[in-house]
Write a structure and sequence with these properties.
- By secondary structure, this protein is an all-alpha fold.
- Helix 6 runs parallel beside helix 8, helix 9 runs antiparallel to helix 10 and helix 16 crosses helix 18.
- The longest helix is centred in the C-terminal third of the chain and has 122 residues.
């Protein structure tokens, strides 16, 4: 079904009104929506309209995300407060250094005015000091123009301290007549500031309405004299539309945003404009944007080292009312605001903060009490649980004691079995090793026997052949040769050394323990045993007759006797030396 252009436009306007009533859109989107309604004839169905409505409805979500980021920036700026104060002091010192080169009274007056303006929102006492210096010098030099300008500066400072009657008395004396436009502008702007602060201080009592009328009157006069198209002009226009309760709220926002876009983020005017925008959105009940611009204003106050501020305390109050952050954070912000108020000596700000501080402190105290109450309940539950656990543990401990007794008995038996099993494994391993060594010795023995049999067979064959050939002399000569016998003996001794040391690898070290240190015996470089060690080896094998030892080793009996005597003489226990040798390298010990 088609929809006529007139009907669709009416529908769009109706939807816009509903969304604005629900506070889901702000002025930025109103113009876009109207244009869309005018061009809706080109829309073939309602899908595009629905998409735009959804886009407008999710705008607060983006603002909320942006506010979370601004809170992080605010905390980061607060952490750097000392740095921004240091920058401010550095800037002030540079101006003061320039005073050394100023000689004329008029230049000094300008310098005092500049310092008074720089100190105005930073440090009340210093600002008033330079105002008083300017007043004294202006009177001394009979400079009426600067005398009035310094009186204006004096009244502005008195207003920040809450001395409204005193400020008004001075202003009545210096009302402009034929003074330049810039002086008139400053005068009317000061008057506007007086009644604006006075109205705020009265908190909607019977005098507030009169003060509101006067502040608008003087604001209009200040705007007429203000330099056009600069940031301050647009700020004042926003103030006029706001305090005049102009029905076009969008116009107020446009002026403020224009001023905001033209100012640096760390300027006093930027903070004032952002704070003014937050009040506009508060009046429109748009809490997300109110919170947004309060955060922007507070960050500007901190980065510009402004001590005469309001935004941070309002953020604390906002957190208290809407619980967007923890009350601990609200307490931190309000305390910092109070610290600035005392540092600046602003009576009005102290009064404002004191009422807010009481609310936040009470809420914070209630929050702590609630937390403590919950902790006490949790503690009671934990105590009951611990009591239950204690009773259960006593019952379990009794059962565990019985189980432990059984377990200890089983464990003791298991340890004994494990120990016996370990001993059996050890004995079994030693037996396996002994068997392997014995197998190797049997192999060596068989190999020697085989070689001996083969050698005898070859010798018999050779003897038969030589006898048949009537070569008995050659046979006799061959048999009489000792070179063959020496070679065979050497091979035997080499095999004997290998076999014995394989069977008793620790024999040499154990034997040396039986001898004095100077008589220790070592193996040859090629790993073979020296003759005296071979004699000991045969003694270990139970061959104790010197004649047998001499026959096996192809030594003379006297040589064997000499070796045995030498060993006994060098033994630690001479009487039982050979008995001790028999006990060396026992495979299994008792």
């Amino acid at each position: 079904m088609s929809v006529s252009r007139t009907n669709l436009t009416a529908l769009n306007i109706k939807i816009l009104r509903i969304l604005k009533k629900k506070r889901l859109v702000d002025a930025r989107f109103s113009m876009f929506f109207i244009i869309f309604a005018a061009e809706s004839k080109n829309i073939g169905n309602m899908r595009h309209l629905i998409i735009i409505i959804i886009t407008l409805m999710i705008q607060p979500i983006y603002v909320k995300g942006d506010n979370n980021q601004l809170y992080k920036q605010l905390d980061a700026a607060l952490a750097q407060r000392a740095h921004y104060v240091e920058l401010k002091e550095k800037s002030l010192n540079e101006i003061k250094q320039g005073a050394k080169y100023v000689t004329s009274n008029e230049d000094k007056l300008k310098l005092y005015e500049q310092l008074a303006n720089e100190y105005k929102a930073y440090e009340y006492d210093s600002a008033m000091t330079y105002v008083n210096k300017g007043l004294i010098l202006a009177q001394k030099s009979n400079n009426i123009f600067f005398n009035k300008r310094f009186q204006l500066s004096q009244t502005r400072l008195l207003i920040t301290r809450g001395f409204y009657a005193e400020a008004k008395e001075i202003l009545q004396k210096i009302e402009p007549k034929e003074e330049p436009r810039d002086y008139q502008f400053l005068y009317y702007y000061t008057m506007y500031g007086l009644y604006n602060n006075w109205s705020t201080y009265c908190e909607n009592n019977e005098f507030s309405k009169n003060y509101d009328l006067k502040k608008v009157e003087y604001l209009k006069k200040a705007i007429e004299l203000s330099p056009k198209k600069d940031a301050f002009y647009y700020y004042l226009m926003g103030e006029l539309y706001y305090f005049s309760n102009h029905p076009n709220n969008n116009k107020t926002i446009q002026y403020y945003k224009k001023a905001l876009s033209m100012e640096k983020a760390n300027s006093r005017l930027h903070a004032m404009t952002a704070f003014a925008l937050s009040e506009v959105y508060q009046k429109a009940n748009n809490l997300e944007l109110m919170e947004h611009y309060l955060l922007v204003a507070a960050i500007s106050d901190i980065t510009s080292a402004t001590k005469e501020n309001v935004a941070l305390q309002d953020i604390a109050l906002f957190i208290y009312k809407h619980k967007t952050r923890s009350l601990n954070k609200a307490q931190e912000y309000i305390n910092l605001s109070l610290e600035d108020a005392y540092a600046y000596k602003s009576r009005l700000r102290r009064i404002e903060i004191s009422s807010k501080l009481q609310l936040i402190t009470n809420a914070y105290t209630d929050d702590i009490k609630t937390t403590n109450r919950l902790l006490n309940i949790a503690l009671l539950v934990i105590i009951l649980l611990l009591l239950g656990v204690g009773i259960s543990s006593l019952f379990i401990r009794k059962k565990n004691r019985l189980l432990k007794q059984k377990k200890d008995e089983i464990s003791a038996t298991s340890d004994k079995m494990e120990k016996l099993n370990g001993q059996l494994h050890l004995i079994n391993d030693e037996l396996k090793d002994t068997n392997q060594k014995r197998e190797r010795l049997v192999k060596v023995y068989i190999d020697l026997c085989y070689k001996n049999i083969e050698r005898n067979s070859k010798l018999r064959t050779l003897a038969v052949r030589k006898i048949k050939a009537n070569q008995s002399k050659e046979l006799l000569s061959l048999l009489s040769s000792s070179s063959s016998t020496e070679k065979e003996n050497k091979e035997f001794l080499t095999e004997f050394d290998k076999a014995f040391l394989s069977l008793y690898p620790t024999f040499v070290s154990e034997l040396n323990k039986q001898l004095t240190e100077s008589a220790h015996i070592q193996l040859k470089e090629n790993g073979e045993m020296p003759p005296i060690l071979r004699v000991c080896a045969l003694l270990r094998l139970g061959i104790t007759e010197s004649s047998k030892i001499a026959g096996i080793l192809s030594y003379s009996p006297q040589t064997v006797y000499n070796y045995r005597s030498m060993l006994k003489n060098n033994a630690i226990d001479k009487e039982h030396f050979e008995e001790n040798v028999l006990k060396l390298c026992m495979v299994i010990t008792d």
